[in-house]
Design a protein that fits this description.
The protein has 271 residues and is of the alpha+beta class. The protein contains 8 helices and 11 strands. The chain has helices at 15-25, 35-43, 58-65, 115-122, 143-154, 161-168, 172-178, 246-256, and strands at 3-5, 10-13, 69-77, 80-88, 93-98, 105-110, 138-142, 183-192, 203-212, 218-223, 238-244. Strands 1-2-6-5-4-3-8-9-10-11-7 form an 11-stranded antiparallel sheet. Strand 9 (203-212) and strand 10 form a beta hairpin. The longest helix is centred in the middle third of the chain and has 12 residues, at 143-154.
Length: 271
């Protein structure tokens, strides 16, 4: 169920709830498959009896409808895939975080100065004293070998990294690192690009893929380079992972976000 914390301007909404709000703003017809979500929004008071959206939701809805920057954070761990991120508009910023196994995400307002901090917290970026001295170590293999190792470990076929490496014919060091894997996360930033920097679709994109490997520290997957398009890689594609530190990752997250020169001019609705 959706819910509202008016004191802290927090909301819990699913993708279906967000779709309903968008349709109502555009005065569109709510399809049958979204009737349940529509009813839930009314039951908790986000929609009034007249079907209008509560004025308290203006900041969130206006930001979702006209985003200038969208950040997507996908985390794959023992409990499956979670999707979080942030939406930046002309006037407001909202972050949203998903909980494993739940359809709703918590939407919370943020300030520009806290955005990097919020994104770092989404991926549980923390000081890692084990990786500082060894930062820069590189592992090279293939995506196919990586997938085989992950499948072998998930199925519990082999108990030790040596056995996994031998079974798939891959680097022992890769198996040792994956044996400590907590999660993999990918952060993708999409924005409306300035005219001189626009791609064919008018968007700018930057992305970062990281392995959080506990005692083995953080690893940035440098190859294949992000963002990866459909059909761009296969099992023979080169895999290159570089060990890094929390401090370096903070800087990389900061660099993912576009600066003012990279963004398209603000729309006329901006105050």
């Amino acid at each position: 169920m959706p819910s509202v914390d008016a004191a802290r301007r927090r909301l819990r909404l699913s993708d279906a709830h967000v779709s309903v709000l968008g349709l109502l703003v555009e005065e569109g017809q709510v399809p049958d498959e979204l009737t349940g979500a529509h009813t839930e929004l009314r039951e908790v008071g986000i929609l009034g009896i007249d079907g209008k959206i509560s004025a308290d939701l203006y900041p969130l809805v206006s930001t979702l409808m006209e985003p200038r920057v969208i950040v997507r954070v996908e985390t794959t761990g023992p409990q499956g895939l979670t999707r979080s991120g942030a939406v930046v508009g002309d006037d407001f910023i909202f972050t949203h975080e998903n909980w494993p196994g739940e359809s709703e995400s918590e939407y919370v307002p943020a300030e520009p100065e806290t955005l990097v901090w919020a994104l770092a917290r989404m991926v549980d970026l923390h000081r890692d004293f084990t990786s500082e001295a060894d930062s820069g170590e590189v592992i090279i293999s293939t995506l196919g070998t990586l997938d085989q190792m992950l499948v072998s470990m998930e199925n519990g076929q082999f108990g030790e990294p040596e056995a996994v490496a031998e079974a798939v014919g891959g680097p022992l060091r890769l198996a040792e690192v994956l044996a400590q894997l907590n999660c993999m996360w990918r952060m993708t930033v999409v924005w409306k690009g300035a005219e001189e920097q626009q791609t064919e679709d008018g968007l700018g994109v930057s992305a970062l893929s990281v392995w959080d490997c506990g005692l083995e520290g953080y690893w940035v997957r440098e190859m294949p380079a992000e963002p990866i398009l459909d059909g761009q890689v296969d099992s023979d594609s080169e895999l290159k992972a570089r060990r890094t530190s929390a401090k370096q990752l903070w800087q990389l997250i900061t660099e993912l976000l576009p600066d003012g020169a990279q963004l398209a001019p603000a729309g006329p609705q901006s105050r």
